[in-house]
Amino acid sequence: MPKLALSHLEAALLFAFFTSVVLGIVSKHNDRDRLRYGVKCFAYFAGALFAAGWLMYLGHG
């Protein structure tokens, strides 16, 4: 089985994607709302990742 070499950012975005898919599937009643909620959750996850990354970068000096 080939090894997967992901950077920290890639792994975090992959986690955000799969988590958003699951949240979208289990939390809404129709397909349109599921898709919109999944995309919104992914955007929130990605935004939080970048914000936390910048805060750590600026805090480190």
Structure class = mainly alpha
Let me know the average pLDDT: 94
Helix content: over 70%
Rg over C-alpha atoms, rounded to the nearest angstrom: 15 Å
Strand-and-helix sequence, N→C? Answer: HH
**What is the total domain count?**
1
Biggest beta sheet attributes:
none
Low-pLDDT windows of residues: none
DSSP helix count?
2
- Tell the overall outline: flat
Q: What's the total count of β strands?
A: 0
Strand content: under 5%
First-last Cα distance: 41 Å
List keywords for this structure.
61 residues
Describe this structure in words.
82% of the residues lie in helices and 0% in strands. The chain is mainly α. It has one domain. The chain is flat.
Question: What's this entry about, in short?
Answer:
It contains two helices and no strands.
Write the layout of secondary structure elements.
Blueprint: H1 8-27, H2 31-60
Helix pairs in contact: 1-2
